[in-house]
Write a structure and sequence with these properties.
By secondary structure, this protein is α+β, with helices and mostly antiparallel strands. It has one domain: BirA Bifunctional Protein, domain 2. Helices cover 32% and strands 26% of the residues. It is built from 5 helices and 10 strands; from the N terminus they run βαββαβββαββββαα. The strands form 2 sheets. It has a 7-stranded mixed beta sheet, with helices on both faces. A 3-stranded mixed beta sheet has the order 4-3-5, sandwiched between helices. The chain is globular and about 45 Å long. The relative contact order is 0.20. The mean pLDDT is 91.
């Protein structure tokens, strides 16, 4: 039995957004850790995606959903994803990203995986494909992006979503999106142990 949920893309994105709305009302942190039930593609809420492109992805066996956060386009299959919603009234977006990034970094460190934040300033030139570049507190492993992050703030609450590349299929990534992650964590960490560590660290 997995310690994370496996659900369709649209359900996962809707649930993360509902959690953000709930945090606004009651101030209680909510954490979801999950994988996608089917090969899927998600796009940030402002990412430009043509309808014919979505139909092409579907013809190639992929579900499609809009993320409630920002960022570019990302293919999901064996990545470990999360949505963390919490009060951010007094800390702002930058520190919110840092809190989540540090938790992932610590969870990976517990399994002997050393990562570092990208530390590249976030500006207007956000890559249209999520793993074409690393920004801010997204994490690098052996110099290559291993964690993608996207966020959204509404009033006093923030939702940070992340994708951690556990296993990749480079050929599929190239066929579907023309690009993809250059490295993964295959055989470097135990996914259930990692999930428990993340859940504990996110809830601190």
């Amino acid at each position: 039995m997995n310690d994370f949920d496996i659900l369709p893309a649209s359900e996962l994105m809707e649930r993360d957004f509902r959690n953000l709305e709930s945090v606004i009302k009651d101030g209680k942190t909510r954490v979801e850790i999950y994988q996608f039930a089917n090969p899927s593609i998600t796009a940030g809420r402002f990412a430009k995606v043509e309808e014919e492109t979505i139909e092409r992805w579907k013809s190639l066996g992929h579900d499609f959903a809009r993320r409630p956060t920002g960022g570019g386009i990302l293919r999901h299959e064996k990545d470990l994803c999360f949505g963390v919603a919490f009060i951010s009234k007094e800390i702002g977006m930058e520190k919110s990203y840092r809190i989540v990034s540090n938790a992932v970094q610590d969870a990976l460190k517990e399994q002997g995986v050393a990562t570092a934040p990208a530390e590249k300033k976030i500006g207007r030139d956000i890559p249209s494909r999520c793993f074409d570049g690393a920004l801010g507190f997204e994490l690098l492993f052996q110099g290559k992006k291993i964690l993608g992050l996207a966020g959204r703030r509404i009033r006093n609450a923030v939702l940070i979503q992340g994708s951690l590349i556990i296993e990749r299929d480079y050929d599929k990534d190239i066929k579907i999106l023309g690009t993809g992650p250059e490295i993964d964590l295959r055989k470097r960490c135990h996914i259930d142990t990692l999930t428990l560590s993340l859940r504990n660290l996110f809830c601190m």
